[in-house]
């Protein structure tokens, strides 16, 4: 069964969102078998820092809420199967 990432909330350009989705999907797929969310978050953060400049943050988990302040046009929240992935720049 193939898991598809679903964008729940996006505040960034379409091109940037597409690139971020590729990074998120690649990272989660790489670490999904071991459920190593910390390694996934570190890989996503490092990749987004390189692509879009520093100060990205990434939270991954199966049950969390959030209320954040972020830099405009620099936030994406994605569901990937049963996990949520929040990436933002501040």
Structure description:
- The protein is an alpha+beta fold and 90 residues long.
- 38% of the residues lie in helices and 29% in strands.
- The chain is built from two helices and four strands; from the N terminus they run βααβββ.
- It has helices spanning 14-31, 37-52, and strands spanning 5-11, 56-61, 75-80, 83-89.
- Strands 1-3-4-2 form a four-stranded antiparallel β-sheet, with helices on one face.
- A hairpin with a 2-residue loop joins strand 3 and strand 4.
- Helix 1 (14-31) runs antiparallel to helix 2 (37-52).
- The model has no long low-confidence stretch (mean pLDDT 94).
How do you describe this structure in short?
The protein is an alpha+beta fold. It has helices at 14-31, 37-52, and strands at 5-11, 56-61, 75-80, 83-89.
Topology:
Blueprint: E1 5-11, H1 14-31, H2 37-52, E2 56-61, E3 75-80, E4 83-89
Antiparallel strand pairs: 1-3, 2-4, 3-4
Work out the helicity level.
25-40%
N-to-C series of helices and strands: EHHEEE
The number of distinct β-strands equals 4
Structural class: alpha+beta
Oligomer: single chain
Feature tags:
38% helix, 90 residues, 4 strands, alpha+beta, globular, four-stranded antiparallel β-sheet
């Amino acid at each position: 069964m193939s898991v598809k990432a679903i964008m729940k909330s996006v505040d960034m350009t379409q091109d940037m969102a597409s690139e971020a989705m590729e990074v998120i999907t690649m990272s989660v797929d790489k670490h999904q078998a071991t459920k190593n969310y910390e390694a996934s978050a570190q890989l996503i953060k490092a990749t987004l820092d390189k692509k879009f400049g520093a100060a990205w943050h990434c939270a991954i988990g199966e049950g969390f809420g959030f209320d954040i302040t972020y830099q405009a046009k620099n936030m994406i929240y994605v569901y990937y199967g049963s996990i949520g992935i929040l990436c933002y720049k501040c």
